[in-house]
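RECORD TYPE: inverse folding
INPUT: structure tokens
STRUCTURE:
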């Protein structure tokens, strides 16, 4: 048997076995659980913070577009009609904001020498807190109602006031309707 080595077969009960012990696995699982408990809420807060920031920016943008429309249409806000006593209407608002319009607020899907204003946006944006893009229009002479989460936005054409229709407050304690 010169130069020959003999192999010792692997035995399950031997001290040289390889693998994880049950205690080792449990320790790793506990550590991962603790890390998850620390990290997951931070991601949740980040998502909420992103929705709040998006809501602020969308509200600012919508107000800017309403003011631009009003400036180009003889100080008449979108949603109102010029030559009638009809009440403000959501479909009129949407049409006036996403299509081309003339000086009197009549709309057309295509631009021309008459329909030279707008469009002011592609669509009414979705309120990131309620996931709604609809509007609750407030009648002339009425007060702004409290938020109730039934639409994306509350809009009063008479005064061009526009607020998110979102109840509650942000992380800083500011009411969403104050944005």
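DESIGNED SEQUENCE:
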């Amino acid at each position: 048997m010169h130069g020959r080595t003999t192999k010792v077969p692997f035995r399950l009960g031997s001290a040289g076995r390889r693998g994880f012990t049950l205690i080792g696995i449990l320790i790793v699982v506990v550590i991962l659980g603790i890390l998850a408990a620390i990290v997951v809420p931070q991601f949740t807060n980040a998502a909420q913070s992103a929705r709040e920031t998006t809501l602020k920016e969308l509200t600012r943008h919508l107000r800017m577009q309403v003011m631009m429309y009003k400036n180009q249409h003889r100080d008449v806000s979108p949603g109102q009609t010029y030559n009638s006593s009809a009440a403000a209407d959501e479909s009129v608002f949407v049409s006036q904001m996403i299509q081309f319009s003339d000086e009197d607020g009549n709309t057309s899907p295509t631009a021309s020498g008459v329909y030279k204003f707008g469009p002011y946006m592609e669509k009414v944006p979705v309120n990131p807190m309620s996931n709604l893009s609809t509007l609750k229009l407030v009648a002339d002479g009425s007060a702004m109602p409290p938020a109730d989460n039934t639409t994306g936005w509350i809009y009063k054409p008479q005064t061009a006031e526009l607020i998110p229709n979102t109840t509650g407050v942000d992380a800083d304690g500011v009411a969403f309707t104050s944005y």
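NOTES: Strands lie at 100-101, 107-108, 135-137, 153-156, 161-164.
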